[in-house]
Amino acid sequence: MVYPLLIHMKSRNYVEDVYWVSLNPTAPSVMLYKGIKLISVKVDETSLKGYGVVKEHLWKLFHGAADQSIPQLTELAWHDEYAYFNLYNRVCAETLLELDKTEDLDLFYIHDFQQLPTGYMLNNLKPKVFRWHIPFDEKVIPPDWEPFLTKFLNAYDVIIVSCRTYLNSLIKRGYKGKAYHIYPYIDFKEYRRPARTEIEHFCERFGINDDDFVVLLVARLDPLKGHDIAVKALAQLVKKFPRLKLVFVGNGSFSSSSKGLGLDKASSWKRIVSELASALGVSNRVVFTGHLPQDMLDAAYERCDVFILPSRAEGFGLVVAEAWLHEKPVIVSSAAGISEIVEHGKNGLIVNPSNVDEVVRAIEYLIRNEHARKEMGVLGRKAVEILSIERGLREEAEVLKMVVEGFP
Length: 408
Description:
- The protein is an alpha/beta fold.
- It folds into two domains: about 1-185 and about 390-405, Rossmann fold; about 190-385, Glycogen Phosphorylase B (Rossmann fold), CATH 3.40.50.2000.
- The chain has helices at about 1-10, 45-60, 75, 80-105, 115-120, 145-155, 165-170, 195-205, 225-235, 265-280, 295-305, 320-325, 355-370, 370-385, 390-405; strands at about 20-25, 30-35, 35-40, 110, 130, 160, 180, 215-220, 245-250, 285-290, 305-310, 330-335, 350.
- The strands form three sheets. It has a six-stranded parallel beta sheet, sandwiched between helices.
- The longest helix has 24 residues, at about 80-105.
- The two termini are about 30 Å apart.
């Protein structure tokens, strides 16, 4: 989301200069791309690994997936990894403050949960905006974390979240500043309907036959994305529908990458899901494509019959919007933020990801009802308009303008 937002704001003269500061240990220190100055934050390998451990702890916490590996808040400050996490945020803050000295910035726009302490460390009077992308559900956040969160959250003048429910939770957890809800967005022009030959090439590459009924899941390989839920549903359906095929598109994230934090989540999760498919006797009906370039991704969306996102927790789920752009029927987890704009039975189906039988029934309903698939695809294409970058750009620009000019 950040890149298209900056590109559009720059091209439409909403902003004069843009400086993008981000963690990138292998990139040049400074780069210029399409008028955006990219500044890479680098920390040593030990600090990077420690930061990655705490980032993973926080990720699990806010997704409701905390386990015994996550220390209590009272213990966290005594862990070396937490010191490295703070060091990373301190380096980010110092980089921004040095940039402000030379460029006299109008505002700081900080993105996502791992940067939460950065605003607190920016000890100047310039306005600070925070964009929270992952779930913010006060029901899954331990009460003893409230002082930790409010300390850092209230360092920001404005916080923007992705869903209405997150906005309510933010206020309940003690945030006192200005809070806004803006749905995430995509640039529709980045997606296109592929030619038949491109679809045929995709199918040939991944062994998809003309008579296969394809259920597509596009997500990084992570337990929270629910690949195993989809495999269990497949195992129940394949006897009735032997041509059913499940296609997983996606690999790891920066956290999983060997060139990133090296947490190895992607490969271990793929192994677990593959072993599950083998144990359930459906290995030959499950396809892992890995990462796909945009043209192949468009072909995957176009070829599928149904799109599914069975996430156990999902900050939003823009892949559903991508499927809607291709007029595909969608099955969406009730734990995904985008479920707020899914009208059950009209532009998609909403399922409880913890209930595999419910997922099975949703897939079977769409297999048996071609008319429903087409109707949901058409209505989904209409619903996706609310997620256009043009709408998002207007709303983001309005908020940033108020911040810079001062609130009424």
